[in-house]
User: Fold this.
Amino acid sequence: MIAFLVLAALSALLFGLNGEKSEVLMLGDEEMNVEYGSEFVDPCVEIVRTGKVFKFMNETELVPAVEQMTTDTLGKFKIHYLVVNDGEEQRFERIVNVVDTTPPAITVTDPEGTEGGSWMNGFSEPEISAYDLVDGDLSDAVQITHLDGKVIYSVADAQGNEAVLERTPPQGSVAPEIMLTGGSDYTFTAAMDWVEPGYSVIDSDGTDLSELVQVSGYVTPYKLGDYTLSYQLSNSRGDTLRASRTVHVVAAERKEAVIPEQKTIYLTFDDGPGPYTDQLLDLLAKYDVKATFFVTGNYPDYYDCIGRAYDEGHTIAVHTFCHDYRQIYRGVQAYFDDFKACEDLIYEQTGTYTTLFRFPGGSSNTVSSFNPGIMGMLATYMRDMGYYYFDWNVSSGDAKPVQIPTYEVYRNVINGCAQYDTNVVLQHDVKDFSVAAVEDIIKWGLENGYQFLPLQEDSYGARHKIFN
Ligand code: ZN
Assistant:
């Protein structure tokens, strides 16, 4: 009891002697970053009460922010401190940035896959999931890259924090890829038929699965534009390999027409070869004049004239195989089919293909008007595919339903040729009265300073206006 009293007296004395001052300061930075989802530890404002004499009697008090700070929202926040010290109010504030610097977590389930080397026969590809504290499930965004026998998974969250996980799978437990020959961005020169550049899939056990690939989508090979083809292959487990290809159908390069300096006649003969083609070839040989034959498949007995004409330096070009307007102008495909039959006939007889042709009826024909617009379409497609069509600027008049006298054929041709320096003359070598006029036409031409040439890709096309 006595001891207690003594102590109490002593402390009263000490306090009295001590005298106090106090200091208030904010701990930590005025602006601080806190990771999203972490616990916020408030650095607080500190009040230090200091005795003047007896330092051991110092007292400190921590004052937390007024607000209850949470870290479940990204952003910049302000928190406040209110300090009452010696009856005096003091205010402080602090900026807290809730930030996300944590990358997502990638998880690979069953990382070794199932034993066995065949994707087709069912090893399991591991399941990949990715979770980000802020963005949630990012599994669908995981990028998978195969590199040097490794599989690399990568994903980034909205803040750009990237996670990368590398795995070396056991031999034969990586799904094969559909390899596209020619690449996923493919340029194709317009043609009548699409030619798939090819693809292959080799399973991890070495089995060639290429033939099982399903291709969907289409390319209109003669129509300029971009097309998409999809390739896929599924195994019995329902896993699917996919690839896709963009096909750019582009126009073939073309030659510009070159107009000869000398006056020129291009003799052209349609609808043969026929019964009069041989005698025509004899005549052309006699004058060493080269002409152009737009051939058909209508007279099988005379097919060998095509080979002869070609060997003797004449130009062989496509006219039509069947020359049936309703058949060939029925549609684009029908036209191509007929054209190809004629091309093949030429190939059989000459060993070469040609890019030159003449539309049955000419490009200006209206016999095709039962199929509106067909000539415009065909002219565009054929040009884009690299073919050259030729009309005429001088008609012999031999195509009329009734036969005309040979001298009239002659007169039509020379009157026409007299008007122009460059002439594409239309005749038909299946008409004897027309073939009979050729010798006088050649004589007139030679006497009047014309040269006779066979048509080439860069010859004047004498193209008509298209009406259908
Ligand atoms: Zn014809």
